[in-house]
Automatic annotation (TrEMBL):
<dbReference type="Pfam" id="PF02245">
    <property type="entry name" value="Pur_DNA_glyco"/>
</dbReference>
<dbReference type="InterPro" id="IPR011034">
    <property type="entry name" value="Formyl_transferase-like_C_sf"/>
</dbReference>
<dbReference type="InterPro" id="IPR036995">
    <property type="entry name" value="MPG_sf"/>
</dbReference>
<dbReference type="InterPro" id="IPR003180">
    <property type="entry name" value="MPG"/>
</dbReference>
<dbReference type="GO" id="GO:0003677">
    <property type="term" value="F:DNA binding"/>
</dbReference>
<keyword id="KW-0227">DNA damage</keyword>
<comment type="similarity">
    <text>Belongs to the DNA glycosylase MPG family.</text>
</comment>
<protein>
    <recommendedName>
        <fullName>Putative 3-methyladenine DNA glycosylase</fullName>
        <ecNumber>3.2.2.-</ecNumber>
    </recommendedName>
</protein>
<keyword id="KW-0234">DNA repair</keyword>
<dbReference type="GO" id="GO:0003905">
    <property type="term" value="F:alkylbase DNA N-glycosylase activity"/>
</dbReference>
<keyword id="KW-0326">Glycosidase</keyword>
<keyword id="KW-0378">Hydrolase</keyword>
<dbReference type="GO" id="GO:0006284">
    <property type="term" value="P:base-excision repair"/>
</dbReference>
Length: 201
DNA sequence: GTCCGGATTACCT
DNA sequence: GGTAATCCGGACT
């Protein structure tokens, strides 16, 4: 085995992301997001893509804000919204074609003290990562992380293999008006306490 | 240059 | 369950 060979997990996930964001999004459930001592198991994601999805940021073409979404599968697309919040996405589809998976919620595994210090308003551990803006706050994710490779095994922010869910619930994406007919929200059905909302609607 | 609304959160009733 | 906070990106006058 070559010492420079990429781990099978990363290669397989990157290939799945490149092939189809809707098929790949549920594969992110159960994966571990890690940064230093902090780690968490992803329990909720949403898929966005061009050209047939009006809810996708890149639906009207490339801009400076969404440029990372046109990059290589496995990159982090991080954007700012609502005046306060950063959102973490995993880029999908081949370079030049925009698609991404929004990471909406996770179950904290390690480094909870650091997460709590960055989320002082969270009263319970279930409040630490149960929303896309909460998750980025607890991991200290911001503009500086936009464009980093989550599957390269080199950067501080990484996606690693975990325990896949036994059951998955799908539903309409949260906060989306155009494109709500797409059931592209995916949740680990056995991890609902850690999700951004108790039940899909 | 100005205006509108947002892939949200947290607090209030 | 309803809504204020907060400010940037994209569209348009």
């Amino acid at each position: 085995m070559s010492p420079t060979a990429a781990p099978p997990f990363a290669e397989a996930l990157r290939a799945a992301l490149e092939a189809d964001v809707v098929e790949a999004a549920p594969l992110l459930l159960g994966c571990i997001l890690s940064r230093g001592e902090r780690s968490a198991r992803i329990v909720e994601v949403e898929a966005y893509r061009t050209p047939d999805d009006p809810a996708c940021h890149a639906h009207r073409g490339q801009t400076r804000r969404n440029a990372t979404m046109f990059g290589r599968p496995g990159l982090a697309y991080v954007y700012f919204t609502y005046g306060n919040h950063w959102m973490l996405n995993v880029v999908a589809h081949p370079p030049g074609v925009a698609a991404a998976v929004l990471v909406r919620a996770a179950e904290p595994l390690t480094g909870l003290e650091e997460m709590r210090s960055l989320r002082p308003r969270a009263r319970r551990d279930e409040d630490l990562l149960s929303g896309p803006g909460k998750l980025t706050a607890a991991f200290g994710i911001d503009r500086a992380d936009d464009g980093c490779d989550l599957l390269g095994g080199r950067g501080p922010l990484r996606l690693e293999p975990g325990v896949p869910p036994a059951r998955i619930v799908t539903g309409s994406r949260i906060g989306v008006t155009d494109g709500r007919e797409h059931l592209w929200r995916f949740i680990d059905a056995d991890a609902l306490p850690w999700a951004s909302r108790p039940l899909p609607r």
